[in-house]
Amino acid sequence: MYRNNKAILIKEVESKSDLKKFVKFQYSLYKDNPYFVPPLIQDELATFNKKKNPSFKDGNAKLFLAYKDGEIVGRIAGILSNPLNRKNNSKNLRFGWIETIDDYEVAKALFEAVENWGRQLGMTVLTGPHGFNDFDPQGMLIEGFDKTATIASYYHHPYYYSILEKYGFEKEVDYIEFWSTVPKDKAVPEKMVNAANWVSEKYKFKLLK
């Protein structure tokens, strides 16, 4: 761990207790936000479990927490994907799971922690937000903050984008999402309901809150 000149303490996640704090920080950060859709805690914990996530077979990750006045104020994951770098002949380090209070110095300290690790690995480029692979959520919300977060994408506070720009990141591509709802005068098609019930019964799925 290290402390920067703004009394921000950066700590690497090393224990199960640290990992739970890393996963649960987002719930307190968005607790009053009606549009944030929280992921399941057990899914998040499994994502960073080297025995359960196959991405660790040819890659690595380091997770960091930011503390200020004894309280957690930010988090970030640095992700090394060796298959991606071999495919693209690149030296790219990914970052993801970035969450921070509205404080540029906190975000700066988190990015510096990831960059320092990347330099140790010989990486020269930092991109994100990404997951371990393209099946994980990726990208940063820049509009539509008044809409419920959708599947396979992150929800962010509006100030995130300006923080990343200030640090020096540039937008590479736009992803556009479309909102679709069932017509009010019609119910969900019976065929879809039957298919959902069949899948649920066959694979013993259950709904979790």
Largest sheet: 6 strands, mixed
Give the end-to-end Cα distance, rounded to a whole number of Å: 35 Å
- CATH homologous superfamily grouping: Gcn5-related N-acetyltransferase (GNAT)
Beta-strand portion reads 15-25%
3D structure, described in words:
The structure is a single chain. With 209 residues, the chain is α+β, with helices and mostly antiparallel strands. The chain has one domain: Aminopeptidase (3-Layer(aba) Sandwich). The protein has 6 helices and 6 strands. Strands 1-2-3-4-5-6 form a 6-stranded mixed sheet, sandwiched between helices. The longest helix is centred in the middle third of the chain and has 18 residues, at 104-121. The radius of gyration is 19 Å and the shape is globular. The relative contact order is 0.12.
